[in-house]
Amino acid sequence: MNYRKPAKPGSLARFLCRKCGVDTMKRGEYYMLRDEVWQTAIERGRVPLDKYGQAGMLCIGCVESLLARQLTNDDFAALMPRNWPVHRPPAGPS
Length: 94
Prior knowledge:
By secondary structure, the protein is mainly alpha-helical. The chain has helices spanning about 35-45, 60-65. It has a domain at about 15-75.
């Protein structure tokens, strides 16, 4: 599988799923899994690390496919605060 998919117009490359290329930010899939769950997923998917040693993003569907099961609440490390600032591209002219 090609892990280096080009960014779609209006997408930030760092939010693209490293397996299927879907824009995880546009889907609202910004989450954090427990370390052991994440490690299992990236090892099973053979997701290459970037130059900073990070695996990048995976959409929830790809994580579930790699784990061969649905994620549960116990798989997530923490709930993100509702007011956590999320980088979004600047809005274009209306």
